[in-house]
Amino acid sequence: MNFTFKVEGGDFTNAGTASSHVKKMMKQLGVDAGIVKRTVVALYEAEVNVVAHAFRGVITVDIEEDKIYVKLEDEGPGIPDISQAMQKGFSTASPKVREMGFGAGMGLPNIQANTDNLVVNSEVGKGTTLEITNYF
User: Fold this and answer.
1) Closest-CA residue to 66 (of 38, 35, 100, 40)
2) Are the CB atoms for 53 and 107 separated by under 8 Å?
3) Using one digit for the tens of pLDDT, what is the confidence trace for 81-113?
4) Of the residues 19, 45, 71, 103, which has the fewest C-beta atoms closer than 10 A?
5) pTM of the model
6) Domain span at residue 120?
């Protein structure tokens, strides 16, 4: 089962659309509730990161018999230091994003805590790609 979602930078109104859809599909497929929760938390955090930091992005979801694989590719500023960005509390969110209650620096650490496998690649000035895998 494959799905693709487009995400627009700055569109906080629709942030969470992909994670909500994926949650519904995983529940319909009878995936363990704990795995659904972990996956949705990771995907929501990743979606918000695209909305908060990038110009736009594409989320590709592949649900297989034994796992879910999610790839988020964004066009944005990129992450200069991935290991620093993985630290709890580190954030490059703008004051405007922080005023809306986002940008606390928990996104990437929370994504990592809720995935079985996370791969982060980024190129400054081009964008960031996250690959998330959770096994059933």
Assistant:
1) 35
2) no
3) 898 888 887 777 777 777 777 766 668 889 999
4) 71
5) 0.90
6) 2-135
Q: Give the separation between CA 77 and CA 73, rounded to whole angstroms.
A: 12
Q: How far is CA 58 from CA 14, 41, 63, 65, 76, in A?
A: 14, 18, 16, 23, 12
**128: exposed, middle or buried (C-beta count within 10 Å: 0-12, 13-18, 19+)?**
buried
- pLDDT > 70 in the chain, percent: 96
Q: pLDDT category, 120, cuts 50, 70, 90?
A: very high
Which residue has better confidence, 39 or 99?
39
CB-count burial class (<10 Å; 0-12, 13-18, 19+) for 119? exposed
CATH number at residue 83: 3.30.565.10
The domain total for the chain is 1
